Known about the structure:
The complex is a heterodimer.
Chain A lengths: L1 E6 L9 H5 L4 E3 L5 E3 L12 E5 L2 H13 L5 E5 L4 E3 L2
Chain B lengths: L30 E5 L3 H13 L4 E6 L11 H5 L13 H6 L2 E5 L3 E5 L4 E4 L4 E3 L2 E4 L4 E2 L9 E2 L4 H13 L5 E5 L3 H12 L3 E5 L12 H13 L3 E3 L4 E5 L6 E4 L3 E3 L2 E4 L3 E2 L16 E3 L10 E3 L4 E5 L4 E4 L3 H15 L11 E6 L2 E7 L8 E7 L4 E8 L2 E8 L5 H9 L1
Parallel strand pairs in B: 1-2, 1-7, 2-3, 7-19, 9-16, 10-11, 10-16, 11-12, 18-20
Antiparallel strand pairs in B: 4-5, 5-6, 8-17, 13-14, 14-15, 20-21, 22-23, 23-26, 24-25, 25-26
Bound molecules: flavin-adenine dinucleotide (FAD) and iron/sulfur cluster (SF4).
Amino acid sequence: MKIKIKVDADLCIGAAACVVVAPETFQLNNDNKADVLDHSEAPNGPAYEREIEVTEEELQNIILGAESCPVLAVFVYDEAGKQLFPR
Amino acid sequence: MTRQGNNCFRDNPTPSPSPFVAKGEGKHDMKIIIIGGGIAGTACAEELRKLSSEVEIAIVSEEHTPLYSRILLPFYLKGKVERERVFLKDENWYAENNIEWLPGLRVEKIDHKNSFVELTDGRELPFDKLVIAGGRDTRALPEDLRGVAYLWMLDDADHLLQLISEQPRPCAVGVYGGGLIACEFINIFQNFNFEITVAFRGPGFWSRVLDKESSELINRHLIKNNIKVLPEAKFISLQGEKELSGVETDKENFACKILGVGIGLEPDISWLQDSGLNVGKGIKVNEKMKTNLPNIFAIGDTAEVFDVHSGHQRIMGTWTAAQFQGRIAAQNILGQEEVFDQVTSSTMNILGLDVIFLGDTDREWADEVKVEGSLEEGGVVQIFYKKQKAIGATLINRNSERARLLAEIKG
Ligand SMILES: Cc1cc2nc3c(=O)[nH]c(=O)nc-3n(C[C@H](O)[C@H](O)[C@H](O)COP(=O)(O)OP(=O)(O)OC[C@H]3O[C@@H](n4cnc5c(N)ncnc54)[C@H](O)[C@@H]3O)c2cc1C
Ligand code: SF4
């Protein structure tokens, strides 16, 4: 399924909880904020927002990463634009 | 001296009935008590429930509110998020997950031989497994006056916001201390365009960890941002009758209507002295979160955890560590043998200057510290070694080195 992941860079403090849980989706950049990756790749360069194709298992892990963020800076949406997290 | 939570059990005179009636034996009716409802305790409860729908879980929490993010408090104070957004759980979450939530109560005593804890309302709760997640308390000044502010709990943030709202602009404020909380105060006060004086006992911020160059880099950055910096200034007394008007130090006195105090944090372990638990600065645990006593675990800021990368028990003191230790304790309570092997990382931004701590940065434990960069170059990295292996690092304005150093510490 396709999902959209967005990191609110104004909120992100670089706590890296998302990176620990889902390193293939989140990576800290030189501003100490989390970039969103597509399966460890960054097609078209670094981005705080990305649409990616994931399996149900991958989605659950990405949501666990988002849940782990101490400032709730990670937003996950489904293909129809419905917010999956924060619930 | 440390401060106790403002939310004392006395505010909550009608206790709910005991969650546990009798002690169970098998895993199905295993009774697990968690002391402290911060991120460590709540993450532990959440993971336990994820793994088992049957175990009985109770969280005894001195604070009255559901879990909130301490890290969001500065965002709330600066008006960047609404107060409601600091909460990570709502009151219904506990019941929905069949977790007994006992807010406004403290555990006062642990009887490990008979496996029960005693609460401040006199109740005794039996347990099969006990998880201590009591966090840390802020160290307090020896005196108090209206205008003195701390920043650890939501109550502290509400109090600080009230003080800020009462001040005219421009207004002189002070910060006493040289660590994470002092940084947060500086950022918050700058947001309100206050005139800030910061005083600390050592030569610079984190004086037990940072070298001279790193310290000086931070001091100069503060001065460049119009902050008055008073290093090597020991607190003597508060000035003012009913309200704060200034601070006397052995170096210089300064005027301030608000004083943000960030002079350190320490676990409150005084009540555990006769518990049989092995305590040092915190409760000593191995990398599986197990204490020296069977069936008792400790996690988060209250625990001195064995760091598998440095071979040293230490308080890790970060949100992410607390959260993952909670999850690992839950897994191990249910029979797994998981290990906490994260390289801890904490990041601060002081008025635009990035400060990163990775892994174990205890100078006394390290046998060598190498320095890269310099004041002139505008960035300094310190790498801490034990037996020629990197175990920790500090990075001032050197974010790009993070990934390399993390990999080196992971080994
Ligand atoms: C302003 C601020 C900014 C921060 N920024 C960062 C950051 O950027 N990155 C980072 O990693 N960390 C940061 N932290 C630190 C982080 O919040 C803590 O490391 C984390 O909250 C520790 O979680 P904990 O669950 O171990 O302890 P706590 O959050 O302290 O929770 C422990 C709870 O247990 C309760 N308790 C204690 N004793 C008892 C008892 N006997 N009975 C019942 N209840 C008890 C306490 O009242 C408390 O509610 C920040 C903290 C603050 C205040
Ligand atoms: S967990 Fe949150 S704050 Fe930390 S890096 Fe990820 S998005 Fe940023």
